Amino acid sequence: MALAIRPLDVSTWSDFAGLAEDHHGVWDGCWCLGFHEEGRPHGYTPEQRRALKETRVREGRAHAALVFDGEPCIGWCQFGPTEELPRIKHQRAYRDGLRQLPDWRITCFFVGRTHRQRGVADAALAGAWAEVARLGGGTSRATPRTRTAARCRDRFSTTALWRCSSATASHPADGSASTDGLSAGAPDVQGTTKRIIAGA
């Protein structure tokens, strides 16, 4: 399976939207809006969330690395400047001892039901880091939603993020490990910071 990465923008919005629509807006109509300022649960209908997300994309205020298997978009990794994604989980623990906020955040993954357990999340994460480098580089921080490997295995969208947060190699999600190859040690909820060089 040869995968291609493209950034989420006006030209790829329909691809992103098509995958989301095939999965009922993802997470009961979240539309990957949950980590944005207006993304609180139950604040908007799924239709309104779709419109808000599209507006962000058209204004350049939403970022993701989309994964394609030929024509269809099959998954993504959401990332963005810290101020673009303020609604992260575990806020108090995340900020405890943190001297400086990162330039970028990696917040969520989604993989279409027909392509799970095939390395798509790993490709999406690598694509997100490449996009951060293309956009100027800086520090990027990922935080797991769960602290136990057992729970993480049940959440297909978080396995690559778990590995990103718990790995010590410079490229923890380079595709060399399967999505079940999780680190034995639970990562801290503060996550892991990675420095990305512009253009690297």
Structure description:
The chain has one domain (about 5-195): Aminopeptidase. With about 200 residues, it is an alpha+beta fold. It starts with a strand and ends with a strand. The longest helix has 15 residues, at about 120-135. The protein is about 30% helix and about 20% strand. The protein has helices spanning about 15-20, 45-60, 90-95, 120-135, 150-155, 160-165, and strands spanning about 5, 65-70, 75-80, 105-110, 140, 190-195. Helix 4 links the parallel strand 4 (about 105-110) and strand 5. A six-stranded mixed beta sheet has the order 1-2-3-4-5-6, sandwiched between helices.
Protein traits:
200 residues; alpha+beta; Aminopeptidase; 18% strand
Largest sheet: 6 strands, mixed
Helix tally equals 6
In the sheet with the most strands, the strands line up as 1-2-3-4-5-6
CATH architecture: 3-Layer(aba) Sandwich
When the domains are counted, the total is 1
Q: What is the general shape?
A: globular
Summarize the structure.
The chain is an alpha+beta fold. 28% of the residues lie in helices and 18% in strands.
What order do the helices and strands come in, and which of them pair?
Blueprint (H helix, E strand, L loop, with lengths): L3 E4 L5 H10 L23 H13 L4 E6 L4 E9 L9 H5 L8 E8 L8 H15 L3 E5 L6 H5 L5 H8 L25 E5 L4
Parallel strand pairs: 4-5
Antiparallel strand pairs: 1-2, 2-3, 3-4, 5-6
